[in-house]
Automatic annotation (TrEMBL):
Family statement: Belongs to the protein kinase superfamily. CK1 Ser/Thr protein kinase family. Casein kinase I subfamily.
Keyword ATP-binding in annotation: yes
Annotated segments matching region Disordered: 323-367, 483-504, 548-568, 616-652
Pfam families for the chain: Pkinase (PF00069)
Domain Protein kinase: 26-310
InterPro entries (UniProt xref): CK1_Ser-Thr_kinase, Kinase-like_dom_sf, Prot_kinase_dom, Protein_kinase_ATP_BS
Key words of the record: ATP-binding, Nucleotide-binding
Residue sites binding ATP per the record: K57
Biased composition (Pro residues): 342-351
Chain intervals with Low complexity compositional bias: 558-568
Name of the protein: Protein kinase domain-containing protein
GO molecular function: ATP binding; protein kinase activity
Species name: Coccomyxa viridis
Amino acid sequence: MKKEWKTSLQRGEVIGAGAASGSGIWGVIALLGEGGYAEVYEVRDLSTADSPRYALKIDSLKVKQEPRLATVRAETEKLKRLQSCDGVPRLVEGGVGKHHGRSYVVMELFSEDNLAVFQQKAMLSIAAIRSIGLQTLKLLQSLHTSGWLHRDVKPANFVRTRDSDPAAGGEWRILDFGLARQYISKDGLIVDAREGYNEFRGSTNYASIKAHQKEELGRRDDLWSWFYMLVELLQGKLLWRESRQPGRRASGSDDEQKKTAHRMKLRALSDPNTLFASGRCPEPLVKMSQHLAALQFKESPDYAKLQGWLAQLTSADATRLLQPPPGVLRPQNGVAVGRSAPKPPRLPPQAPAQQWPHPSVGLQQHAAPGGVFAHGQHGVWPGGAVPNGGAWHGAQPQALTAHHLLNGWAPPGHHLGQQESLDGSFWAAHSSLQTPRMSNSTEEYVGQGSQQSSQIPQAVPSHLSAVPENWDQQLGQLGSEFGEEFDQPHEPSMPHVARQQQQLKRSAEIFDDLHADIAGPLAKRPRPSPAPSRVPAAAAPHLLEEDASPLLHPPLPSSAAPAASAARPAQQISPKAVSFAPDVSSIIPALDPANVVALHHPPAPSAALDAIGRQKRRRHLPDRPVPPSPPLDLAAQGSPAARQDQAEGDGMASYGPAFLQSAISAFDEGQVSVNAKILKKLVPSMDPAEAYVGLGWAGWCLIHNTTPETRLQAKQMLNHLGDFFKSLARTGKGA
Ligand SMILES: Nc1ncnc2c1ncn2[C@@H]1O[C@H](COP(=O)(O)OP(=O)(O)OP(=O)(O)O)[C@@H](O)[C@H]1O
């Protein structure tokens, strides 16, 4: 299908002065494509009867305004030198012509299908994918053998020949040498990476990790882009493109898109399964990824091996890609939620109390802020995955999970699974509100983590050797999924919250498993003496045991709090004072998307929420009416159509943005006490999702060293929320 005619040249327009100037006379027939700085037209030579058709590439009008952007001239120079290379378009005129100050070049014409268009037209068979993969790989190999790198490998830069059979996968050629660069010097040596090089080259979705890191690119980077293309051919999409679905506005800036793509590519480096919504990467692609990851800058890729792996792709792989493996929660909006592990036997209820962690756990060295805790990619943790999924750590200088593990926060008598379930909810709510900062810090963290990992002593706590190998992978995967979900720059919305809650439930399960796994081995160890409370008495003079009582404790009226504190002067806080987890654990089952869904038609932000956040909403969110969300059929979520609906609803059916925005600022430490008041006011009109955010907020205040007053408010908030969730679980309605 020809593109809509909207660019600078018109049908029938004549370009070139003809034989007198040594050029053809080119009559414009159709627009074929347009890139960043050029337009490509189908033309024919008007000076010849029955002229074949050609492609004419001309600088776009933008270039005329900003001549430094001119690319056609430079590209033609490169194309001239590449004429002996396989699959490169043949130049029809030796040189560059000028048309009203814009450079153009005429070349061999291919079909109107570039690979980006082609793969959208029909579901490709695995045989077609193998054929396209092989051809494009060979084109790159040929280019590399000629001493050139392409540096912008992407589907739009491969184009099918006109006479090839699309049903058989077509014959493919390579285009667009604007960024191509010679990597072999005149004396036949591979050129060193330029010192101080710091440029991004390529296209966000297909750029290699090194490209994202603005490093000099080599052959391996062209092949990483090829690899991502292959993933896209197999799956129909790249997961980091999620937020740019057809018909939806792009929800992030280019920078944000780059960051998301970079982060997800880094994650896929240690776990290629994450490239696929099904959570399973075909084995041949795992091998490709490992091969590419192992290549040094100057090293030649093993094209033959890559071809061999490509040939191993079978239709069974393709079928599996569409099916989550047993135990993987159904992907939501294309994102696999996590792999469930076989459940270890639960501890009997009367299991002896444990202190966590055992004092012998030597993990303090990992507690330094900035990401050194998790670097499992290099095998520091059993199972070899990042235990907090990167995202956990990225959320705060001290990861919440790390915080528990490292600081022995949970008092004796406390069950880790419950505590960690709570922790998961804090983290989830917290990170969902931290979107922009979260992506930054996660990215920094991942980079830093992998850089520093080699310098960090191997410190696997001894008791963890008794823990199944994959527990940290599970946490890692979960953390990453959370990270991925919440790093997406979209507005909070119903489906978003439902997913969030489903993941939270999953986290509770994993943490419970973890608890059972760890508590068992620990039970066999000598019972340590009780750990001191994490909150020293001097730092928490106003905290009373009652103030921190379990969730069902009746809330203090807000005005009563200071009075209560005054009546009972400073008192050592007992371990029980922070032991609210059992109650929170009991509300975790109530955090069920079905409950939220049932209560949430239509989403109706309360007037109070609206008023408080109006100003902020104006600043942060588009000022538009909130449409009622259609009933969400959870049972149908697995179907592609339902997922699409859900995806498109995402960002549309947003509710309570004012609340969420005000909660976002609650996480700025300076403002916590102000926002505590706001949150408390809102409790009566809360819906479950908002309550959930409040839960996260309160937990965050308790875990971090906020002021004693704020912690008190947070505990009151937990009381309210406890009632709320209990009522939700009992009646299907919030309090
Ligand atoms: N010789 C050709 N035959 C047929 N179609 C072509 C030809 N050259 C380019 N096209 C079409 O035009 C599109 C844009 O071409 P090209 O990638 O060379 O432009 P660009 O401005 O350099 O793009 P970008 O900014 O994306 O790098 C291609 O994706 C392809 O669909």
